[in-house]
Design brief:
Helix 8 packs across helix 12. By secondary structure, the chain is α+β, with helices and mostly antiparallel strands. It is elongated and about 160 Å long. The chain contains 31 helices and 42 strands. About 25% of the residues lie in helices and about 25% in strands. It is found in: Endoplasmic reticulum membrane.
Length: about 1250
């Protein structure tokens, strides 16, 4: 990832696998390895350059020694504020020491001292500018031209640099006084002289004297005005010189204001800083510390942050940056948006140096420290991760801090007049903090240097996220509006890759059959990043593997800017040693994305790992880039929440948080639902925060009520009473997309309102069936992390009127309470997958629906044993259920479920890379056979019942047949394998997507255990069932059909059934349909002319309540009389849907079998308990005296009880025993898998 893009979550951004939380280890590793040797050399040079004492200097002053030493803590970077290369320096202890005894660099002429270089008002502008630059800080400064003077000494009350012109104010006052005297003398002189000498009349002399004296007075005033203008021009000139040469200005006025405001600032404003520091420390904890938490943060009222210097940066230096920004924006914005951005105003740039120094307090008095100085309370949990943790509260006090920061304000014409604020640190700040442990009876004076160093390193690591050339930009407008809603994905589009096969690979192993000798698999990755993004299955002992797998990789701006190469690496899997690279193929992503919207078939020769080398073999594959689609205006809605009743839908306070909408795309995101024409796309899931998080009191009320008859049964009921405590959970979240674990957040220790701001982006094949499940768990030691609550979200239910949703959801189905804020965002991409691959995902179950599995033209004999297996599971039909068909030409296996026979269901983990593979074992061949059949699940659509008629093959290599994608269409072209068709296999089946009870057998580690537990929790609460179907919201479907029929008169006059068949795009040839009667065309396809069904009810009719009669008001009551079945029927009648037609919402509503019982379910352990009815459950409870029935009833509900810490699991020792049992079982399974062939599976994404 580009280091310049590492940032703290703000304004719609979030932590993710590509924007990880920084840790101290990585930060230290990034420091210069040669820094110590270089620093020692520079320190030695500085020791030889001691300042010379000058007796003529004022008291406390000294000659200035330049601190500009090349190489020490210095580096040249691109300043993100001005867009120019600058040299930055990390703050050291010497800088901190200088803040205790602050000095100003003053030109020697201002101290009446000789100077090698000085400024003079009579110098030319160019000379004056140069002399001022080399005699003004910062370094380098001309030697012998300046001295360092204490800040508050008398010598500082001088003008450091003489202005180019002098002050005229005393002369103006003198001229004005003399002008008054002159005007009076002229006035009286004219009167006296004219009257006495010439004998003139006073009526004539007085007006004449007044006019002349007034003229002289006004001329003098004008002269003074011109002089003042010249003086102001000179002052502006001086200010320009000061700004151009970056002279710091006095900021004591600002420090006075800060000291007054400091005590009024709410410490909660810095909650984000404390949260970032906690995340950094959590990601960097050593093994002896299990967890860490920031418990409290105070600013203190004794000492405020001081600004040491403040200077403005020239606006002209930003022009280069603005031009660069415009060029970047031209790539993805139109001209109108660019003009709107440019109207945002100009930029104002500042550089400030700030410092802080704590006030002395009584040693050990923590309350006095918190009252006066900046500090925070940390809680370290000492122990071993996963076993135990002892809390140790620590008080951390900020002793001193010095930092230099550059600010860039983007000004806007509208309030608050600041659009964005960008800042960057000019070098690492110097921060020193002390730590004191807190005990129950007060504070311990014992200092903790180890923890103090750890905290100081954590602060430095957090600060490194913002050191130049890295920066952070805050949208001030959105922050004031509280906008953290994400309205655009980070992904620009997806790379879709189909891997067909590899041919002619080199033999890597000594052993191997004909055409074998290697166990290949392919990893897809970005060449510079290196980490595998997708891996195919391992095909054993084959030099010509046929994979036929596909994957999608998200392309972000970082990938494009880094000039990443798409890398397909072919590996050989080994049992006892590291896997070997067989060859690889690379492709330029920058070139590919210039040709979007199409697939490019490739036959690529493999190249070696070393540059210029090659390897035997070639790879047949396809690749294409597909960008995000434009929003269709025909699907635009008002953006209101359609799940609300019509009477509440217009209330603003009940609508989703949409944030600030600045562009047309953002408006479209919050008002346009996903497009049914483009079901595949990028899904973004962000977990913001949780509030009111607490654990349920699983033990309930105390049965002894004597003396407490009138007390509430549970005193802990009501609002949560604390933000941190021993009873609060240490929560983390897991995100499941289509029942696959894709993301796991960091743990936030003992808090009732944890902030995560973390999430992920994933490619999904079909938004109409996609389900996101967010589980919140409590991190615990020596026991499984229990579920606090789950939130299942089906995209077609959440995104009915917009492509983005940010809402609060209650946590349910676990051992706690709370409300979680989650954001969902879906953007379609211009990718059309085959119908069979537009599905739910990898997880599902293949169901055999008929009563028999039959063969035609293949009948080796009765009692033939049938074995089946697929990706992750296997099944069989014993020979006793096999018999010959009536014509004697085939066999039939009974799978009706009647008698001793069983219904056949195969749970699947890897649907798009595995087949349902049949093995036929005639009598006498129970172990080995050469008769097989296969149907690949990637060719099977979701939830479609089909009659399958597939070939039965005799093959000399059953392993190769089961692992390669070999079908009836390509088996003749596969080399090194003999295949002969000997019959046909016929059965009826379907692929049911999603998790169900049969997937319990997949639990082999903690990740799979947590995944199945999340589904169980949703299922138990009635918000998930075992069926998942693709659904389009009725509102979206209506808008979609109107958009397709708009302007087509032939479709407007067609019946609803005919129109539905036209819009279904089921593959029929409708060439020439326009201008002909659709009924006639349908008759040609169906052999009859049918009338269509009645049109579905309008959206407005669906939203209206069935009755407003006061005698019967539907309050949504669910009890024994008004159960879920009645509510389900009303809902189906209201929506006008028919479950038999395939439009029932199987995801959120139970089917008829499951709904016939209680509102909740009994368990998911066995099939019998799933069908338990209310009467059976009641009967079991009434016969509670029968211990056998009591035990069976407990066993039927054990998983639900244990998941909610009830029954035996309410006691911690029992949970410890269950944890140890499972961990032992998982360890044994890992040992059994040692030496097996496996590829490189990508890890679960996280931000730590």
């Amino acid at each position: 990832m580009n280091e310049q893009e590492h940032h703290y979550p703000s304004g719609g951004s979030h932590y993710s696998g590509s924007n990880r939380i920084p840790n101290i280890k990585q930060f230290v590793a990034s420091l210069d390895k040669d820094k110590k040797a270089r620093d020692a050399k520079i320190d030695a040079a500085e020791e030889n350059q001691q300042p010379q004492q000058n007796d003529s200097l004022p008291q406390g002053a000294r000659e200035h020694i330049s601190s500009h030493n090349d190489g020490k803590n210095r580096r040249t970077v691109r300043d993100p504020t001005t867009g120019k290369d600058v040299e930055i320096v990390d703050i050291t202890s010497k800088h901190v020491k200088s803040t205790k005894d602050p000095m100003l660099t003053v030109p020697n002429p201002s101290l009446q001292l000789p100077s090698t270089i000085s400024t003079s008002p009579d110098q030319p502008d160019s000379t004056y500018r140069h002399n001022q630059d080399v005699t003004a800080p910062p370094d380098p400064i001309a030697p012998g031209s300046t001295s360092d003077v204490p800040i508050h000494g008398e010598a500082t009350n001088v003008l450091f640099h003489p202005t180019p012109s002098i002050s005229f104010e005393p002369m103006f006052a003198s001229i004005e006084a003399r002008a008054n005297v002159l005007a009076a003398a002229i006035f009286f002189g004219i009167i006296i002289i004219g009257y006495t000498l010439s004998g003139g009349s006073l009526l004539t002399l007085i007006p004449l004297a007044a006019v002349i004296s007034s003229g002289v007075f006004l001329w003098t005033k004008d002269l003074i005005s011109q002089g003042r203008k010249m003086e102001w021009h000179s002052e502006r000139k001086r200010g320009e010189f000061a700004r151009v040469n970056l002279i710091p200005e006095s900021v004591e006025w600002l420090n006075t204001a800060i000291s007054l405001v400091w005590g009024l600032i709410n410490p909660d404003m810095f909650a984000g800083v404390a949260d970032t520091l906690e995340d950094v420390m959590q990601a960097s904890l050593p093994g002896v510390i299990e967890n860490v938490k920031v418990n409290d943060f105070t600013l203190g009222k004794g000492e405020a942050l001081r600004v040491l210097s403040l200077r403005a940066l020239p606006d002209g230096e930003v022009k280069q940056l603005k031009d660069g920004v415009r060029k970047e924006m031209e790539k993805d914005r139109d001209e109108q948006e660019l003009k709107a951005e440019e109207e945002g105003g100009e930029f104002y740039n500042l550089e400030a140096t700030v410092a802080y120094h704590s006030l002395p307090t009584e040693k050990g008095n923590v309350s006095a420290r918190a009252e006066k100085n900046i500090g925070m309370q940390l809680v370290f949990y000492l122990g071993i991760k996963g076993l135990f943790g002892v809390p140790l509260p620590i008080w951390v006090e900020l002793e001193r801090m010095v930092a230099t920061v550059r600010l860039r304000f983007s000004l806007a014409p509208d309030p608050p007049f600041v659009k964005t604020l960008s800042f960057t640190l000019m070098g690492l700040p110097k921060v020193e903090a002390s730590c004191v442990p807190i005990v129950e009876k007060g504070a311990n004076i014992l200092n903790l240097p180890v923890i103090s160093n750890f905290v100081n390193w954590a602060i430095a690591t957090a600060a490194s996220m913002y050191v130049a050339p890295k920066s952070m930009t805050l949208d001030i407008g959105k922050m004031l509006q509280g906008d953290d809603v994400k309205k655009e994905t980070n992904a620009l589009g997806v790379l879709f890759i189909r891997i067909h096969k590899a041919v002619g690979l080199s033999k890597q192993d000594r052993r191997g059959s004909k055409g074998g000798g290697s166990d290949p698999y392919i990893c897809v990755a970005f060449s510079k990043f290196g980490k595998p993004q997708y891996c195919t299955r391992v095909i054993q002992d084959d030099l010509n593997p046929v994979f036929e797998e596909s994957c999608a990789l998200l392309v972000t701006a970082d990938v494009v800017k880094a000039d990443e190469q798409l890398s397909l690496e072919l590996w050989d899997s080994d049992r006892s040693s590291a896997d070997d690279v067989v060859g690889k193929v690379e492709l330029s992503i920058q070139k590919l994305i210039q040709h979007p919207g199409r697939m490019f078939p490739q036959i690529s020769k493999l190249k070696g790992v070393k540059a210029g080398s090659s390897m035997p073999g070639e790879l047949h594959w396809e690749v294409g880039f597909f960008g995000k689609t434009q929003f269709r205006k025909a699907l635009r809605t008002d953006g209101k929440d359609l799940s609300l009743p019509p009477g509440l839908r217009d209330k603003k306070e009940l609508q989703d948080d949409k944030g600030a909408l600045e562009t047309e795309v953002e408006n479209a995101v919050v008002c346009t639902p996903p497009d049914p024409l483009w079901p595949s796309g990028v899904l973004s899931v962000v977990v913001h925060q949780i509030v009111g998080l607490e654990l349920e009191n699983v033990k309930g009320s105390n049965g002894k009520r004597k003396g407490r008859e009138y007390e509430p049964a549970r005193p802990d009921a009501g609002e949560i009473k604390e933000e941190a405590g021993k009873k609060l959970p240490s929560a983390y979240c897991t995100i499941l997309v289509n029942d696959e674990l894709v993301y796991k957040t960091r743990t936030k220790v003992v808090s009732s309102k944890p902030i995560f701001e973390a999430g992920t982006e994933r490619f999904i094949r079909d938004w109409r069936s996609a389900i996101v499940t967010v589980s919140v768990r409590d991190s615990r030691n020596r026991e499984h992390d229990p579920i606090i609550g789950v939130v299942p979200l089906k995209l077609s239910d959440v995104l009915q009127s917009a492509s983005q949703s940010t809402r609060w959801y209650p946590l349910d189905g676990g051992i706690g309470f709370g409300r979680i804020r989650i954001s969902l965002l879906f953007r379609s991409v211009e990718l059309k997958l085959p119908p069979a691959q537009v599905g739910f995902g990898e997880i599902g179950t293949f169901e055999f629906l008929g009563d028999q599995i039959r063969t035609v033209s293949y009948a080796p004999g009765e009692k033939t044993f049938l074995k089946l297996r697929t990706g992750g599971s296997s099944g069989s039909v014993k020979g006793q259920f096999c018999q010959r068909s009536q014509d004697g030409n085939g066999l039939a296996w009974d799978i009706s479920g009647e008698g001793k026979s069983q219904k056949l269901r195969l749970p699947v983990r890897y649907r798009y890379r595995s087949p349902v593979f049949f093995e036929f074992h005639p009598p006498g061949k129970k172990r080995k056979t050469d008769i097989f059949a296969a149907v690949w699940l990637q060719d099977v659509p979701d939830m479609e019942e089909n009659d399958y008629d597939i070939p039965i093959w005799r093959c000399d290599n059953g392993l190769r047949l089961s692992q390669n994608y070999i079908t009836e269409g390509n088996y003749t072209s596969v080399p090194d394998i003999k295949i002969e068709e000997v019959g046909r296999l016929r059965f009826r089946g379907r692929f049911k997507p999603g998790t169900d009870r049969d997937h319990l057998k997949f639990v082999s580690d903690n990740e799979s255990r947590e995944t199945i537990e999340s589904w169980e929790a949703c299922f138990a609460e009635g918000v998930r069932a075992e069926h998942v179907k693709a659904e389009v919201p009725p509102v979206v479907q209506k808008l979609h059909e109107e958009s397709l029929t708009h302007g087509r008169d032939v479709l407007r006059t067609a019946s609803e059934e005919d129109k539905k068949m036209w819009l279904s795009r089921d593959g029929r040839d409708w060439t020439g349909a326009f201008g002909k009667d659709p009924n006639e065309l349908l008759a040609n396809h169906r052999g009859e002319s049918g009338s269509g069904s009645s049109a579905s009810a309008s959206v407005e009719d669906q939203d209206e309540d069935s009755s407003d009669d006061d005698d019967e008001v539907d309050l949504g009551i669910a009890d024994a009389e008004h159960g879920e079945l009645d509510a389900e029927k009303k809902k189906k009648e209201k929506k006008g849907k028919d479950e038999d037609e395939g439009n029932g919402n199987y995801t959120w509503e139970r089917n008829s079998e499951e709904s016939s019982g209680a509102a909740g379910r009994a368990s998911v352990d066995t099939r019998d308990t799933m069908d338990m009815t209310i009467s059976q459950a009641t009967q079991a409870s009434t016969n509670s005296k029968n211990p056998i029935k009591v035990y069976k009833d407990y066993r039927s509900r054990s998983r639900d009880l244990h998941r909610q810490h009830r029954g035996l699991m309410q006691w911690k020792p029992m949970r410890n025993i269950a944890f140890a049992k499972d961990e032992t079982l998982f360890a044994a399974r890992r040992v059994m898998k040692v030496g097996s062939l496996s590829g490189r599976k990508p890890d679960v994404e996280t931000e730590v």
